[in-house]
Amino acid sequence: MKFLVTNDDGISSLFLHELIFALKAAGHELYVVAPTKEQSWTGASKTRGRPVKASSVDRGFGCPTWIVDGTPSDCVNIAIAHLLPEKVEGVVSGINVGFNCTLGFILASGTVAGAWEGALHGLPAMAASQDVTEEIYHELKDHGGEPSRELLATLKNSAAQVARLAGQVLATTPARSFTVHNLNFPFPCQSGTLIKRTVPAHFFVPGLFSPADDQGRHSLIWTQGEDVSPPEPLTDLQCVESGSISHSVLDYRKLGHD
Q1: Domain spans, the chain
Q2: Bridge partners for 34 per DSSP
Q3: Does the global pTM surpass 0.85?
């Protein structure tokens, strides 16, 4: 299939690179349009207050590649309208550093938003995220650390699963269906790790900012939040925490329906 690939961690993310290599190894034809720098937790926002620049680059992926100094939604919107020389059959966004489970994180996620922008263009879309420990997350994000051998092996397994599922699931997802397939991979993830159908967990996430410092500034912090999900059906968070791959089908047409 022909896919547009994006992410929210930026063009330099190893997690994006492994996804690209896996999709190419599975025989898919790719166009990559990714943010110049990290755009995590930007949700579905689009850059309104300034012009957005797109530039063709060569990052050694073996496929046409552009960077955009904006959000994942900017990337997909500009790509489809102005950059791609032909129509694609789907959008694949990721692999995100850290999970995108629960309603709170799904709606805030730039990774899911990149896929959602594809759905807004009538395309089948998939978002993929890799769970990591809090320690690994901060080592990668805050200190520019390199992934361990175990994490790299997990990442390659997860990317191979995305490549396989993208070819199967997106090929059978109707166009113009406002549907995003949200995948979350556990850590560690093996080639034979089970995939389970899930729903987003109901999760309250208050208090994400620190108290003000002496200059009145609040910094983003991590909080565990509160899981108020009913016992059934299986949630994305429960699935990933139990060591399985979560696959939630986000049909946005159902918003507001009983």
Answers
A1: 2-254
A2: 67
A3: yes
